[in-house]
Request: fold
Amino acid sequence: MSGAARLGAVVAETRAVLTDAGFADAAIETRILLAGLLGLSTTEIFTQGDRPVTERERSVIADAVARRLRHEPVHRILGHREFHGIELRLSPDTLEPRPDTEVLVDAVLAHLKRMAAQKAVVSILDMGTGTGAIALALLKECPQARALGSDISPGALQIAAANAHLNGVAERFETRESAWFEAIDESFDIIVSNPPYIPTEVVESLEPEVKDYDPRKALDGGRDGLEAYRAIAENASQHLLADGIVGVEIGYDQREDVVQLFERNGFSLIEWHRDHGGNDRVLLFTR
Reply:
């Protein structure tokens, strides 16, 4: 991209490059990518077609397009994304939160609000917190909630803490390095997790956007994809307050196996929810 250009032409060129490379959502990705890079809304990308694009901006866009052609996800290129009404910074240490996880937030939120009507403070443990997405979305929706986000990655915990400040809930959010319940002594009203659940042998066959850019530890659920659920199911009862709930995200084909794991440890399934694609995605348990 060289010489003087208008935004409309740059949009068309970027969309064509991504389309030719085989990206099915090239038009949408172009809109999101250029809006983020230029500090515009996705609507302004269309309404400001005559806007001049500087040489520096064109260089930034060219670099971003080259990264996308290497299958780096759009929101990783931008360094942030929206999730359930909050803004989250991303890093190589964190899984990129996806819309299906909002189903888990919504399912838990109904119980959180019910609990908040009955007690002054509702405590949440978000295990494998990553960006803090689940915990922070819940805190934003309920002023009476307090959350502990745990993770094995110090880098992820730094991003989660930064995201708590970014969204104005830092005074109600704490982080702790822990492998599941290893460093957890307290008990909570709600325990929630989107754990690694991809079987080890399947990880290498995932799309490059996931396999090459999400942290391996946030994806790999062990030989059968169920290692994290075993750790949670076997120990959650020691950390769950009376009438508390456990909410987990699962792989599309794991409902029966995960339900059996929890039932063997004294839990009962109270709700299950499907994601936006119609797949089993969220399970809620109580003792």
In short: The chain has twelve helices and nine strands. The two ends are 61 Å apart (CA to CA). The chain has a mean pLDDT of 96. The first strand starts at residue 80 and ends at 83.
